[in-house]
Amino acid sequence: MPLPQTGAPGSELKSPREPRKSQTLPAITWKSNSMKEQSTNHGDSMKPSLGMLKRTLFRTSLQASTHKAKEDPGLFRRSSHFLFRSLRRALDEGRTAGHPQGTAVPEKPSKVTDGVSRQAATGTEAEDPEPQAESKSVADLITERQLVKAFEQLRYLETQLVADKTSRTFTQDPTAYARRAMDLCLHYDGMAAEIGAIVREALSSEGVDRDALAELAQVVHLEEEAHHTSQAEGDFLSTPRHWRQHWENAVRLSAQERVQQAGAKIIPGAAEGASDLAQLLAELGGVVRQDLQKVRLEMQPAYEATDFPVWETYLRAFHSAVAQRLQELARDARGCEQLYVLLDWAANVYGSPDFLGAPDLALPTEPLPPLLEPALWARLESDYTRFLETKITSCFDSILQLEQNRWEAGEDREVLQGLYHAPLSIDVHMLVAEHVKAAGAISAELEATTLQICARALCLFVPRFEKAFLASKAVSEWYLGAYINACVELRTSLLARFPETIKELEKPLVAATNNFQKHLLQIVQQDMQPLFKVLYTKSWLTQDTLRPLMDKVVDFAHHLEHVTPPLAQETLQEVHRFVVREYLGQVLRPHERFSGLDRVNGSHKMNLDAQAISNTFQGLGSEAKWLDQAILSVAEILGETYKDDIRRHLETLIRSYPDIRRDHILAILALRRLGRRRNQNLLQHTQDLLRAAHEIRSSHRVLFEEIEVPTSVDVLITCI
């Protein structure tokens, strides 16, 4: 039995505008096959014919799958499945009839010319006449993409075959029915393959063949009208071909091919591939944008006469393909930069209303599923924050190293807006703002997580930085003032911007500020400490020993002018308190004791010094006026000639400075030398005042409490 000629019905066809290789579909050879079967010996068995038919089907399916590997294989499997079932049904009908396989029932001549000569209804083989010049075979029509004409011919032949089957024409020759059904099957499959080829070429080619798309839509509509209901079990003829579903599958596969080809030559590296990944995603976005614009502006008008959901189908196909591609990239993404590029592209580039370049082409967010599954998105964010934590810690290490390099290089001091300035504050602000802003562009949750990471890293960095600086040789008024300003700026700005998240940062910043301020005071105190030793001595009575001390204060105050005002005022008041405290400490622990005229002169000199100290600090802007009375009160007690008024001066001193103790009163009375009985009376009188003062004393005003006096004074007073 001669095998029907088969080609590759599923092979991809090029655009009619381009040269195409010849593509041959099985010609409709019903008359020739019937004639040859009629000439077959009646005594032959059916088994060879069935075997040859199965081999024909196998070869046809093999060729189709070989030449069209990317087509939906389900079309050919379904066709073969139904065909074999139809064949078995026809064979069963033949056995039931009980007639030997002999001369076939004459067939009606087909009006469709298929390249094969018509036959008479007799059992002899006739010569093939020349085909009509104006007629074309179904295979040629499919190749030329005249799908409507090809379908009309196939539909006519299918209707004719159904009528012949209904009239039991193939009772004695069921293989003829199977052969003719196979021809129909292969041609229908060829049309399905051509539909897929048209869909793929629509995206891959530069232009759009609108005629081919319109032909495609029309033939799909005609097939749905012709095959609108499923046939009985086992009947392959007139069954729905589901070409609309095949069209949707072709759209989906076409979108996948386009998306997979985008950036295929770019392979991001393991750690340094952030730029490569960004380039890949940029190319991917360009392909998707260009293709969807082409669909909306050029392809959709070709389908406008039909009910094809062109835009929605292509949109979902590309969305699904992009999601699949991103999942593949997410599996290989490594490092903070790559993860961020991936998240940022998904959230801000693809999710942008301007992604397609026009407001009416914006990607809808409601009908489409999420680009990345929530679990995958959460994993990417978790991986990103894990890498980010390490990166931010490394960035703070770099900031510390930069500051250390400045200390060693002795860079020129910088004053910004009247304040000592170090780049520390700007570096930290830029680091935090950059990562928080980048994370906020992706999601609010990632922004909050990034902010917490920055806060934790900064809480660890501040003590490390403080320790490293104070251990260096760069400690000076300038650097201490600059870092006090930096800590205050970080505290006020970050806490104002992120009050809840960075609340934990307040404690280390306040601690660092206090330590820097403490060391700033230590510097000036160490410079002034030796100058107090000459106070309340013989030379002090005749020399201006206070001027060098005040010069030190003025020089130090020049540095405070470049420190943030609240801290500068606080530091200046501490220096003021230090000077008064050390002055009184030197007086209450004298190396020499004055009596008579020297004591009176000493009292007068103390009044002058107290006025000079008050005027100096008042001129520098100190608001600690409560300190002015301390030296004056002691001077008045020492110089009072009317002894009964000493009680009044003591009362004023105790009320002004509640932290004064009995030891301090004893030391002052020892300097005054009033005698034992009067001293005892004054101590007895001040006892209740000291007790009351102790109950109301304020922790903010501490002066005498920090002045140490010798314990032997009480013994001295007793012995007077």
Can you put this structure into words, describing what you see?
The protein is an all-alpha fold and 720 residues long. It has 4 domains: 30-40 and 62-120 and 134-255, no CATH class; 262-366, no CATH class; 377-519, Tetracycline Repressor, domain 2 (Orthogonal Bundle); 535-719, Exocyst complex component Sec6, C-terminal domain (Tetracycline Repressor, domain 2), CATH 1.10.357. 65% of the residues lie in helices and 1% in strands. It is built from 25 helices and 2 strands. A two-stranded antiparallel sheet has the order 1-2. The radius of gyration is 51 Å and the shape is rod-shaped. Residues 1-133 have low confidence and may be disordered.
Topology:
Layout: H1 30-38, H2 47-67, H3 73-97, H4 138-143, H5 147-166, H6 174-204, H7 210-226, H8 243-261, H9 274-299, H10 310-332, H11 335-349, H12 374-409, E1 414-416, E2 419-421, H13 424-440, H14 444-470, H15 477-497, H16 506-528, H17 538-542, H18 546-560, H19 565-588, H20 597-620, H21 628-639, H22 646-656, H23 662-672, H24 676-696, H25 713-719
Antiparallel strand pairs: 1-2
Structural class of the helix and strand makeup? mainly alpha
Shape: rod-shaped
Q: Which consecutive residue ranges, at least 5 long each, have pLDDT under 50? A: 1-133
Count of domains:
4
Q: Let me know the number of strands.
A: 2
Oligomer: single chain
Cα separation of the termini = 149 Å
Question: What would the average pLDDT be, to the nearest integer?
Answer: 78
Order of helices and strands: HHHHHHHHHHHHEEHHHHHHHHHHHHH
Beta content comes to under 5%
Helix content: 55-70%
What would you report as the Rg, rounded to the nearest angstrom? Answer: 51 Å
Work out the helix count. Answer: 25
